[in-house]
Amino acid sequence: MVPAPGAGVQGLKIGQRVAFGTAARGGYAEHLNLPAWQLAPVPDAVSNEQAAAVMLQGMTAHYLSAFALQAGQLAVVHAAAGGVGGLLVQMAARLGVTVRVMAGSPEKLALARDLSASLTAGYEDFAALAREHGGADVVDDGVGKSTFSAGLDALRVRGLMYLYRAASGAVPPIAPQTLNEQGGLFLTRPSRVHDTQTAEELRGRAADLFAWMASGELKVRIDRVFPLAQVAEAHRFLEGRNTLGKVLLSL
Q1: How far apart are CA 249 and CA 226, in angstroms?
Q2: Which of 39, 82, 40 is nearest to 57 (CA)?
Q3: Residue whose C-alpha is closest to residue 56's, from 179, 165, 162, 146
Q4: HEC assignment per residue over 193-210
Q5: Contact 57, 87 (CB under 8 A)
Q6: Over the Cα atoms of the chain, what is R_g?
Q7: Ordered mean pLDDT values, 10 residues apiece, the chain (251 residues)
Q8: Which of 49, 51, 79, 184 would be 42's cystine partner, CB 3.0–4.6 Å?
Q9: CA 43, 196, 117 angle in degrees (round to 5)?
């Protein structure tokens, strides 16, 4: 909530609910001094918890889906029961994309199916299964080292690999010629910071997310809410890799 806008700030008023996700620091603070353009107004139909849950992972899923995905394509999404993965599955499905997902347990695969994933697979055989369907147009990989090579194998000719995180570790160096030999592939390492460069871009993406949540098109799964005093326990919970949605801190 805005306690007081700075001098010359337009479009924000005292008491207005806002959300942010691209500030360099301050996520555990009770008050922050941020550039106004980094703040997205939160509509009445969206709760504080929902808004907090999508400003990092939702923005990431938004640029991953908006840039490359088109109706009729096959997309592979790793960690589909996680924060980014679960949102990305829904965004891809609403575009008419067939989504093959990977997750670390049967329970997580079941959650992905509930979010509109069409096909599910374990990490050990997803590349072969993708090729059985002609290869993936896009692989969205937030896992990194342990899935990267198989992800390239899963792509069709001229397919696109989005390596947006590296949860299992940094991927090894890759020679450009390797991309040629495997089918003229495209590889990019994006960041939400690079896809929210202006107030118009940031607020436009946030407005889409808020509108989809308000209409029920986008389901945001909040796993646990920890009080700020239990932040260490929240980190242990995340590190245990047992999360089935977003973990939040409350003030």
Answers
A1: 5
A2: 82
A3: 165
A4: HHHCCCHHHHHHHHHHHH
A5: yes
A6: 19
A7: 85 90 72 88 94 91 88 88 84 88 72 74 83 93 93 96 92 95 96 88 95 93 90 90 80 81
A8: 51
A9: 75
**Sheet containing strand 155-163, strands side by side:** 119-121, 98-102, 74-77, 136-141, 155-163, 186-188
Q: How far apart are CA 163 and CA 159, in angstroms?
A: 13
How far apart are alpha carbons 217 and 7 in whole angstroms?
38
- Cβ-based neighbour number of residue 170 at 10 Å: 10
Tally Cβ neighbours within 10 Å of residue 144: 18
